[in-house]
């Protein structure tokens, strides 16, 4: 049985004379032990969806079960008990500035009426888990962004939750610190078996740690599946934009291939898309040996996603027209995606 299950879940906000459909008939399930990412641009409905999962918002329609409990049926006291199984971390950490690191971590333990000596012991254990040994008496203001988020993570884990919800947890951090925090989340998932649901507007976060992804737009989940599948065969326009964000971080032009074709006029410009294990094969050198063409890589990026490789290369092929055609056909036969400038 799934740990989290949503069936046609809808959330509407009534404001003045208007109704805002923030979450629109959403279906998905999260299995125990998974890291499930929800990606979408601002206003897509991600935060609202996350808040539905821990009962901070009530569903307007649909069925939402978490940990085998239907949230809509819980009474106030049951809801408080239910929330103990769910930790949450935030983009801006939400730490108490007048409390030390250790006191911040102990807060949920105080609320759960854990005896003082046990609170201290547990907080020290958590400090060690998140790699902040010795910083317990510091104040949040004395810590770096990454360290603050580590405190946020320690606090969220204090009551041994089954589920950790992450609300844009790395959006305020620089790229290196982002990767360190993502690594910590991955470790928590693997070592403690905590199921993680995260929301983000960065495909990078999804690629780094998620097993599954759901793409959200205007309140709807428009596409979902294994990260690798969604990455390699994006169907919806919004998903393609996220994939593009990852593959060509430094190119902003709408039409990348046209841009290159104007700047490289010698040969034919093609975009080769490698999916899964194919990218590990030395296919480029094979083609160069087999056909009378030269291939130069103009731009490219190959990435590892869950032990498979995925990537796009933009190449310029020079040689006789017929040889170029044959070389491109060879790529297609090998399962490489080929898109050529000027071809329909
Ligand atoms: N409490 C509320 N009352 C009224 N409208 C709301 C409320 N919360 C969210 N909304 C609206 O619901 C829609 C979805 O917002 P939500 O914050 O869930 O999106 P998001 O994808 O998380 O975007 P962001 O990253 O900008 O927060 C928006 O139109 C927002 O204005």
Automatic annotation (TrEMBL):
Residues 4-243 form the ABC transporter domain. Pfam families: ABC_tran, NIL. It comes from the Bacteria. GO terms for molecular function: ATP binding; ATP hydrolysis activity. It catalyses: ATP + H2O = ADP + phosphate + H(+). Keywords: Amino-acid transport, ATP-binding, Cell membrane, Membrane, Nucleotide-binding, Translocase, Transport. Belongs to the ABC transporter superfamily. Part of the ABC transporter FtsEX involved in cellular division. Has ATPase activity. Essential for cell division and viability. This is Methionine ABC transporter ATP-binding protein.
């Amino acid at each position: 049985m799934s740990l989290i299950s949503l069936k046609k879940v809808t959330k509407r906000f009534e404001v003045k004379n208007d109704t805002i459909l923030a979450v629109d008939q959403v279906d998905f399930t999260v299995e125990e032990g998974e890291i499930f990412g929800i990606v979408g641009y601002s206003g897509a409905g991600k935060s609202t969806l996350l808040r539905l999962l821990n009962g901070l918002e009530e569903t307007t329609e649909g069925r939402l079960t978490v940990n085998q409990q239907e949230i809509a049926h819980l009474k106030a006291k049951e809801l408080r008990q239910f929330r103990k199984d769910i930790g949450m971390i935030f983009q801006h950490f939400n730490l108490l500035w007048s409390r030390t690191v250790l006191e911040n971590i102990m807060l949920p333990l105080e609320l759960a009426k854990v005896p003082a000596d046990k609170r201290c012991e547990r907080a020290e254990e958590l400090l060690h888990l998140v790699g902040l040994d010795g910083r317990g008496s510091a104040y949040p203001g004395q810590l770096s962004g990454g360290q603050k988020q580590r405190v946020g993570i320690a606090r969220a884990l204090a009551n041994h939750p089954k589920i950790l919800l992450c609300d844009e947890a790395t959006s305020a951090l620089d790229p290196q610190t982002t990767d360190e925090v993502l690594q910590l989340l991955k470790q928590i998932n693997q070592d403690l078996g905590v199921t993680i649901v995260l929301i983000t507007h960065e495909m990078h976060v999804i690629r780094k740690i998620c097993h599954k992804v759901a793409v959200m737009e205007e309140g709807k989940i428009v596409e979902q599946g294994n990260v690798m599948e969604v990455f390699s065969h994006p169907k919806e326009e919004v998903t393609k934009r996220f994939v593009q964000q990852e593959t060509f971080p430094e190119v902003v032009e709408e039409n990348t291939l046209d841009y290159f074709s104007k700047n490289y006029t010698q040969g034919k410009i093609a975009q080769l898309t490698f999916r899964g294990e194919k990218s590990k094969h030395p296919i480029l050198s094979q083609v160069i040996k087999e056909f009378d063409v030269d291939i130069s890589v103009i731009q490219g990026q190959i990435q590892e996603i869950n032990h498979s490789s995925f990537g796009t290369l933009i190449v310029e092929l020079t040689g006789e027209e017929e040889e170029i055609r044959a070389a491109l056909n060879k790529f297609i036969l090998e399962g490489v995606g080929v898109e050529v400038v000027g071809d329909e």
